[in-house]
Amino acid sequence: MSNPTAITADDGVPFVDTVREFDAPVSAVFKAHVDPDLLAKWLGPRDARLNVTEYNATTGGSWHYESGHENAMYGFRGVFHTVDTDELIIMTFEFDGAPGQVGISTTRFEEIDGRTRIVAHEVYPSVEARDMALATGMNYGVIEGYERLDEVLAA
Length: 155
Description:
It is a single chain. The protein is α+β, with helices and mostly antiparallel strands. It has one domain: 2-Layer Sandwich (Alpha-D-Glucose-1,6-Bisphosphate, Chain A, domain 4), CATH 3.30.530. It is built from four helices and eight strands, in the order E-E-H-H-E-E-E-E-E-E-H-H. An eight-stranded antiparallel sheet has the order 1-2-8-7-6-5-4-3, with helices on one face. Helix 1 packs across helix 2.
């Protein structure tokens, strides 16, 4: 059984906060966030395909992937601002369909008795941009992606 995913998007601020625990050590959860082959196995909903074209998860590195279905693939890109192994990832994100609408994501990895809690804080360029991301089903993709990550970690 998966752990619950708490996603908070308060009215009037361009933030999305996500908290999730995993029954795996920090090193494994962190690796699944920085290894492009592992990322492709869990990020997003089950019915979507993820094609990672660039993923240099180091401080100053860049990333790009496409996600979606055969007839509708959507590109996303960004830059890794800070990557501290097993502790922190700070990165920008931008949807290719909304150029210039760059957000920033901070994900902390916390060890709790051999388990891992991730705490993510995303800042969008506006409340409207955040609401548009939420309206596209982002929450569903995050929740199902973390369920898939549970499966990757268990394997």
